[in-house]
Amino acid sequence: MDYFLTDTQAEIRNLARQIAHEKVKPVRAELDEKEEFPWEIMKVLAQADLFGLYIPEEYGGFGGGAFENCLAVEELSRVCIGVSVSFAASGLGAYPILLFGNEEQKKKYLPQIASGQRLAAFGLTEAGAGSDAGGTRTTAVLDGNEYVINGTKQWITNGGEAEIYTVIAMTNPAKGSRGASAFIVEKGTPGFSFGKKEKKMGIRSSATRELVFENCRVPRENLLSKDGMGFLVAMKTLDKSRPGIGAQAVGLAQGAIDECVEYARERRQFEQPIISFQAIQHMLADMCTQTEAARALVYAVAKFIDSDPKDVSKASAMAKLFASDVAMKVTVDAVQIMGGYGYMREYPVEKMMRDAKILQIYEGTNQIQRNVIGAALIKEAAGKKK
Amino acid sequence: MNIAVCVKQVPDASEVKIDKATGTMVREGVPAVLNPFDAYAVEEAVRLKEKHGGKVSAVTMGPPQAGEVLKHVVAMGADDVMLISDRAFAGADTWATSYTLGLGLKKLGPLDLVICGKQAIDGDTAQVGPGVAENLGLPFVAYVRRIVDVSGGKMRVERLIEDGYEVVEVSLPAVITVVKEINAPRMPSLKGKMKAKSLEIKPLSAQDIGAEAEKIGLAGSPTKVMKVFSPPPKGNREKIDGAPEEQAARLAEKLKALKII
Questions:
Q1: How many beta-carbon pairs below 8 A join chains A and B?
Q2: Which residues of A are the active-site residues?
Q3: For testing contact with chain A, the best of B46, B190, B193, B195 (most A CBs within 10 A)
Q4: A125 with A152: CB under 8 angstroms?
Q5: pTM of the predicted structure, to 2 decimals
Q6: Interval B151-169: pLDDT, tens
Q7: d(Cα A272, Cα B197) in Å, to the nearest integer?
Q8: Which among A23, A44, A49 has the least Cβ separation from residue B190?
Q9: CATH label, B2-215, candidates 3.40.50.620, 1.10.443.10, 1.10.10.10, 3.30.70.330
Q10: Distance of CA B236 to CAs A284, B239, B256, Å?
Q11: What is the ipTM, given to two decimal places?
Q12: Between chains, do A11 and B191 touch, taking CB under 8 Å as contact?
């Protein structure tokens, strides 16, 4: 369908598509098999200026928004979301600086992230704190002009590979979620190390590690926003980034459909291509309709976010929730249509199905997305004058 | 470094068909692209600029639509472009083309290095690179597979030969042609693409570059094409089908029967 992209947006999509096709597709199976971080591709994306799509020009970016970023993420995801998450997670690490950083922090870090010279990552989740961010145990204690950070962050995408981390830690544990703060921590800071690389079901080329802080001292000027604002930083960051997960889901679903249609036209049973059977056509029709609906929602929400409204939590959660559920269903059906071939590692859809599952889990499980939407409905209803 | 790259627009090789009646290439409806070997030249020039500073200019001779390849080259990181386009250039062979490109390059001012792809995939002559060097009166190294270093007005390069490579030191300015082993051409960048989009290319005419009428186009081309033909297929061929093991066994039988093994 035509979404009436501007010339610039079409260029972004075409460039990302070209990179996906020429640089990612030929190596995706190998990256998955070897669980190897896609550094070569990250360098290509950096050289192509794609890391700075959503960063203002004054900080070395391209000056676009969430929508432009979604277009690039979708195209990369069409061939491999292990690669696209490594790209997109740098944005997740950058948003806290972009949204809440002061001028010095923005000038120092954003150009490095926009150029792709250094990757970023975001550290919120812990062993005892996932959906319930209030359970955060990592602490940061002010000592003179430095904060001393202690604790362990878990399952951090780009952990170990990224060089700039935005991390949430409790500066006043007694105050609960109002006692959290956000910090910028650079790789190489004494007392900051990484745990083992996790073995995952899908997105195996992406790096997932623990961030370990043992009396890690960071300068006071690395505090983002104000003391006690950590959870607001985290929530606003996720509001901005969630449509990106939606874009991953749309790309992944589309990639699965692309494979399936091609296969169903070639695979012959009962002396005809299987796509001539209504059973297959109806499955493909549903997959295609659901994916297009997800794309329309993700694009609409990304554009809404770029209009800079006051609250985007509900819309952002809907884009992530709907698209990721669609991606899971579509990839399961894609394996079904391809039958035995679909189940084999030699064909790409089994990886797509394994990869899809994470979309319903990370950046807030889909149950949490429903909570966000539900809470917004209650708030909206309560605010209405009778 | 002030570097110039000579580029050519060619038909996309993956789409080319040959007209059986005339034996010539069918150009109608075939997409035109940057000559693949020229992409290596552009990449090397942009890398040298990134390392040593300076400027990369790209020059092409061709019809007005050849400006498209110049846009591609800008998207890859070239700074300036020159399109030499005039009906008077039509029918130019490698001799007249080298003369014409030489005049264009002279107009760019003092250059440290001119890089060309080893050959164009449509004509496959590999003559224009050396021809340009001759017209500029500059030293020339063909088939460069690596630039080892550039310093003190000299450049050390490795040039590919049939059974290995030679290390050559050449004084600058110079002209080189490069082979595909030299690098992996980059993807265009988004900023480059946006710059290319807004680029206005003003073609230079024969008069603009000060070309002498009898040295350009068909008049300036000593090459006369007598006949173009595809070599006839060789007879007596047999294709062995089947699983690899079967194929190997049957091939061995046949070779034995022919007393070759």
A1: 32
A2: 363
A3: B190
A4: no
A5: 0.86
A6: 999 999 999 999 999 999 9
A7: 47
A8: A49
A9: 3.40.50.620
A10: 49, 10, 17
A11: 0.82
A12: no
